[in-house]
Design a protein that fits this description.
The complex is a heterodimer of chains A (523) and B (292). Chain A has helices at residues 8-27, 41-50, 62-79, 108-124, 153-158, 169-180, 326-333, 369-374, 426-439, 452-455, 473-477, 496-518; strands at 2-3, 6-7, 33-37, 82-83, 93-99, 130-136, 141-144, 186-192, 206-210, 217-227, 234-244, 249-257, 262-270, 275-284, 289-295, 305-309, 316-320, 338-340, 347-352, 363-364, 386-393, 396-402, 408-412. Chain A is α/β, with parallel strands linked by helices and 523 residues long. The radius of gyration of chain A is 39 Å and the shape is elongated. With 292 residues, chain B is an alpha/beta fold. Chain B has nine helices and 13 strands. In chain B, helix 3 (99-116) links the parallel strand 5 (82-87) and strand 6 (121-126). The longest helix of chain B has 24 residues, at 240-263. The chains are: A alpha/beta (523), B alpha/beta (292). The A-B interface holds A 30-47, 49-51, 53-54, 57, 60 and B 91, 94-95, 99, 183, 185, 187, 189, 219, 221-229, 232-237, 239, 241-243, 245-246, 248-250, 253.
Chain lengths: 523, 292
C-alpha cells in the first residue's frame, strides 16, 4: 500500500517521527509554577470542571495523548490518498519525456499544457508503479528517477524552465530508453510536438501526447546586416517577419538601439504563410546592439523579439615601406575601408624579390629560400607565422601571412615588373582589399541571428514542414504527420475505500476517547 | 501576653455581654436567666401552695384578699458553660499575619465576656484532633490564664473540624454555648463540617476567620497549587472561567455554613484576619450583645 505514492513503511516512519515530535513537545510543555496556598479545597473543584474544557490540558494524560495522536495520524493517512501497491510483478515502469526546447520557450500556455499532461500521466499510475521524468532540452537529463517519491514530481516540474534553443529530442529518447532497458513492463511517453523519429524501431513501447499549439503566430525569422555597396563601413539591417494562422494580420515591428534610441517602427499586413521584410537603412558598422520587437503579442512570444549586434568595422590601417609602389598604394586606398598610415597599422604591406616557387606550396618558417629572398634586407617572416600564396603570376607571388606581431601581405616585386600584366588586372585590387579585410578580421557574410531559427522555426508547429522555405503557404497547410496516440489506461486502484476505512478508524478512536472522557477515566 | 492582648483590647471587651435564649439547667449561680425558679431577687410569678413548700414565701396579702394560699416565685440566674473550640491547625498559622492571631483574639473576647458574667469557660483547641483543654472559672485570674494559654498555642496539624466536633460531642458535657473559631477549611467540605457540628447539643456560634483573598484570589498563569497542610497538588490554569468556578465553590461553602447557622439559630460571624479585631466586634456582638 502507498500513501500519495509513498510506500507504507515510509509513511509509518513519517507518522512515527511526527508522533515522536509531538511527544517531545509534550515533555517540553511549559511546567506550571508551584505555589503553596492555605487550601486547595475550592481550586480542586474549579480545576476539575475546567480541565476537560481546555484542549491542551487534555494532553496531560498519556492515554489522552495517545488517543489524540492516533486520531491525528489516521486522519493524515486518510488524507494522503492511500492506494494498494498491487503485485510487484505487474508494476509498470514509465518514463515521461517532456519537450522543454525552443518550441515551449516563452509560450506559457504550451508549457503549462505540457506539464499538466505530464502530471496527468502521473495520476494514471497505480500505487506500485514507478515513474521517471526526462526533460528534453539542449541537454537532456533525468529530473525524476524511479527511486524518487512520486509526489515530488510536481515540484520538480515547477523548477524546469524551457530553453530558448532547440531540444535534443533524439538524445532525450535514447536516455529514456536506457532507463527502461531490461524491464519487462515498461512504457515511454513523449509529451510535446508530434515526433515519432526513432520510435518505430525502438524496443520500448512509445506513446505520444501532443501539446496543443497556438492557432496563429507571427515571429522574427532572421536579422542580417548587409554592407553598403561602396562602403563596407556602413550598411542596412534587414529583418524578415513571418506569419501563419487562419487570417492575415497587422504586425508592427519596432527596432531600437541597445541604448534605447528608436530606429524603426513600421506596421505591415502579413498574409499567413508569407513573409515581410523590414529594413533599417544606412547604419554604421559600429558594433552596437539592436533590439527588434514584434507586436501584438501572440501565443509564442519567444519569436517576437530578437537581439542583434551590428558588426564593428573600422578602416583597416595599412602601412609599408618605400618599396611599395605608389600605384599599389593608390589601388588599396581607393576603397574607404583601407587607410594608408605611416604609424601604427593593423596590416603590413611588404614588397620584395625572390625566386619563383611552386604555386600552392605553403610556406613555413624562415628556412625557405623565397622567404629569405623576400626578406633580403634582413626582415623576414616570423618562424611561427602561417603563410599562404594567394596569387602567382610568373615569377611574381602574393603571400598573406598571419601570426607574428601583425598580419602581413607580401608581394614580390616581380608582380610589378615591366613584363607583368598583373597590375592591369582589375581583380587584383579586389583581391588585395578582400585579403586585407580577411587579415583585419572582417567577416564576409552578413551577420544574422542564430541559424536554428531559420531551420527549426518556432513559427512552424509542424516539425516536418521545416524543410520547406519559411513563408510557404504549403508549409502552413501541412497536416500533422503523427496523430496523437490513444490515451493510456488509468491504472490507479480505487483509493477512496482505503480513505473511508481510515476515516472510520479515526472516528472509532474519537468515540473511544469521548467515552473514556465522559466516564471520567481520562481528563 | 502583651503581643496579642493590649490594654485597649482588655478595656474594650469589658463592656460586652453574652446572652443565650436558653440556659441549661443544673448550673451554678451566675447571671443568665434560666428556666429554673429559685431564690433570686427578681419576682417572676405566683403558684398555689402545696404542703411542703417554704412558708416564708407565702404571699399573705394575696391570702387576705382571696382566702387562698399562694407562693411567690423568683428568677434563678445560673451560669452558661461556654466552650470555645479553637482551630489551631497548620492552615491557621500559614499566612502572614496568620489567621490564628485573629482567631485567638476572638477567642479571648468570648472568654473574657463569659468570665465577666461568671460563666465557666472551656478552651478546646484542635488541629488534627482535640488538644488538652483549659477550663477556667470566673475572675481576673481566670482571664490571665486564658490569655497565657492562648499565647502558647502553635500549629497542631491539618484541619479536622469533623473529628474535633465529633469527639467533643461524645463527651456529653452539660450543654451551653459552643463557639467554633476556625477557617473551616476541612477536607470534608462545608457539608461534612455542618453535619459534624449538628451532633453538638450546645447553642452554637460559628466564628469564621476569613481573608479577602479567600473570595477573590489574586493569582494568574499556569499554577500547581500545593495545600499547605496536606501537600496535595492541583494543576490549574488561571482563567476567567476557572476563577469564576472558584468563586462559585467558595460562595457555596460560605452559604452552607450560613444555612446551617440559620437552622440552628446560631450566630455566624465572619472575622477578617487582615483587619483589627476591635473594629469587627459588631460582627460578634451586635449592640454589644452576643445572642445565641
Amino acid at each position: 500500500m502507498t500513501f500519495s505514492g509513498i510506500p507504507i513503511l515510509w509513511a509509518l516512519a513519517l507518522a512515527a517521527a511526527a508522533a515522536a515530535a509531538l511527544a517531545l513537545l509534550h515533555r517540553l510543555r511549559v511546567r506550571p509554577r508551584e505555589l503553596r496556598v492555605v487550601t486547595v479545597l475550592f481550586w480542586a473543584h474549579a480545576a476539575e470542571r475546567t480541565r476537560a474544557r481546555v484542549l491542551f490540558e487534555r494532553f496531560r494524560h498519556p492515554l489522552t495523548y495517545a488517543l489524540l495522536a492516533a486520531i491525528c495520524t489516521l486522519l493524515c493517512l486518510a488524507a494522503a490518498r492511500p492506494a494498494w501497491s498491487g503485485d510487484p510483478r505487474d508494476r509498470l515502469h514509465q518514463v515521461v519525456v517532456l519537450d522543454a526546447g525552443m518550441a515551449m520557450h516563452g509560450a506559457e500556455d504550451r508549457w503549462n499544457a505540457a506539464t499538466t499532461a505530464a502530471l496527468h500521466e502521473v495520476e494514471r499510475l497505480a500505487g506500485g508503479d514507478r515513474l521517471a521524468v526526462v526533460v528534453a532540452d539542449p541537454w537532456p537529463r533525468v529530473i525524476q528517477s524511479f527511486a524518487d517519491p512520486t509526489p515530488l514530481v510536481k515540484r520538480k516540474l515547477a523548477e524546469v524552465v524551457p530553453s530558448n534553443r532547440p531540444a535534443d529530442r533524439a538524445g532525450a529518447k535514447r536516455l529514456a530508453e536506457s532507463l527502461l532497458r531490461g524491464r519487462d513492463h515498461a512504457e515511454a511517453v513523449w509529451i510535446g510536438d508530434p515526433d515519432d523519429e526513432g520510435m518505430d524501431h525502438s524496443a520500448v513501447s512509445w506513446r505520444g501526447v501532443a501539446v496543443p499549439v497556438p492557432k496563429e503566430n507571427a515571429g522574427i525569422v532572421w536579422m542580417t546586416f548587409e554592407p553598403a555597396a561602396g562602403d563596407p563601413l556602413r550598411g542596412s539591417v534587414q529583418i524578415r517577419v513571418g506569419s501563419w494562422g487562419p487570417t492575415a494580420r497587422d504586425v508592427t515591428l519596432r527596432v531600437d538601439r541597445g541604448g534605447g534610441a528608436p530606429l524603426l517602427e513600421e506596421t505591415r499586413l502579413v498574409t499567413p504563410g508569407e513573409m515581410a521584410d523590414f529594413v533599417v537603412p544606412d547604419l554604421p558598422a559600429d558594433g552596437d546592439a539592436l533590439i527588434a520587437r514584434l507586436s501584438p503579442p501572440d501565443g509564442r512570444p519567444a519569436d517576437d523579439t530578437a537581439t542583434f549586434r551590428v558588426p564593428l568595422r573600422t578602416p583597416i590601417r595599412v602601412c609599408g615601406d618605400d618599396a611599395v609602389p605608389d600605384a599599389l598604394r593608390a589601388a588599396l586606398t581607393a576603397t574607404p575601408s583601407v587607410q594608408w598610415t605611416d604609424t601604427e597599422c593593423s596590416v603590413e604591406l611588404r614588397v620584395g624579390d625572390g625566386p619563383p616557387i611552386t604555386g600552392g606550396t605553403p610556406i613555413r618558417g624562415s628556412d625557405h629560400d623565397f622567404e629569405n629572398a623576400v626578406c633580403g634586407n634582413g626582415r623576414g617572416i616570423a618562424p611561427t607565422a602561417d603563410a599562404r600564396i594567394l596569387l602567382q603570376a610568373g615569377e611574381g607571388v602574393l603571400v598573406a601571412s598571419v601570426g607574428g606581431p601583425r598580419p602581413q601581405l607580401l608581394l614580390s616585386d616581380a608582380l610589378w615588373g615591366d613584363g607583368s600584366d598583373v597590375p592591369a588586372r582589375p581583380a587584383l585590387a579586389v583581391m588585395l582589399v578582400q585579403t586585407l579585410r580577411t587579415l583585419a578580421g572582417w567577416d564576409d557574410d552578413p551577420v544574422t541571428v542564430p541559424a536554428e531559427r531559420a531551420v527549426e522555426d518556432p513559427l512552424w508547429a509542424l516539425g516536418d514542414a521545416v524543410t520547406t522555405m519559411p513563408g510557404s503557404r504549403t508549409a502552413s497547410a501541412v497536416a500533422p504527420a503523427i496523430a496523437e496516440s490513444p490515451k493510456g489506461e488509468v491504472r490507479r486502484s480505487w483509493w477512496p475505500s482505503l480513505t473511508a476505512a481510515l476515516l472510520g478508524l479515526a472516528f472509532v478512536a474519537f468515540l473511544v476517547e469521548a467515552a473514556l472522557h465522559a466516564r471520567g477515566r481520562i481528563p | 501576653m502583651a503581643r496579642l492582648f493590649s490594654e485597649e483590647f482588655v478595656r474594650a471587651i469589658e463592656r460586652l455581654r453574652i446572652v443565650t435564649r436558653q440556659t441549661p439547667r443544673g448550673g451554678r449561680h451566675a447571671e443568665h436567666r434560666s428556666a429554673d425558679l429559685g431564690s433570686g431577687m427578681e419576682f417572676r410569678d405566683f403558684r398555689a401552695y402545696v404542703p411542703g413548700d417554704d412558708v416564708r414565701r407565702l404571699d399573705w396579702n394575696l391570702y387576705r384578699r382571696s382566702g387562698r394560699l399562694f407562693l411567690r416565685l423568683f428568677e434563678q440566674p445560673e451560669d452558661l458553660p461556654v466552650a470555645i473550640l479553637l482551630d489551631v491547625s497548620d492552615s491557621m498559622f500559614f499566612e502572614a499575619p496568620p489567621r490564628a492571631d485573629a482567631a485567638r483574639l476572638a477567642t479571648a473576647i468570648l472568654a473574657a465576656v463569659a468570665l465577666q458574667q461568671h460563666d465557666r469557660v472551656t478552651l478546646q483547641p484542635f488541629g488534627a484532633d482535640l488538644l488538652p483543654p483549659l477550663s477556667v472559672n470566673t475572675g481576673r485570674a481566670g482571664l490571665r490564664r486564658v490569655l497565657t494559654y492562648l499565647e502558647r498555642l502553635g500549629p497542631a496539624g491539618p484541619t479536622n473540624v469533623v473529628r474535633a466536633a465529633t469527639r467533643f460531642a461524645a463527651r456529653r458535657q452539660r450543654p451551653g454555648l459552643a463557639a467554633v473559631v476556625s477557617d473551616f477549611f476541612d477536607p470534608a467540605g462545608a457539608v461534612g463540617v455542618t453535619e459534624a457540628l449538628g451532633h453538638l447539643r450546645h447553642r452554637l456560634a460559628l466564628v469564621q476567620v476569613i481573608r479577602s483573598s479567600d473570595a477573590e484570589p489574586a493569582l494568574n498563569g499556569e499554577l500547581r497549587l500545593l495545600d499547605c497542610e496536606s501537600g496535595g497538588a492541583v494543576d490549574v490554569s488561571i482563567t476567567r472561567e476557572s476563577v469564576g468556578r472558584y468563586r462559585q465553590a467558595y460562595a457555596a461553602f460560605t452559604d452552607e455554613l450560613s444555612r446551617f447557622a440559620a437552622r440552628r439559630q446560631a450566630v455566624h460571624a465572619r472575622i477578617d484576619a487582615d483587619r483589627p479585631i476591635l473594629d469587627q466586634l459588631d460582627e460578634l456582638f451586635a449592640g454589644g450583645v452576643l445572642v445565641t
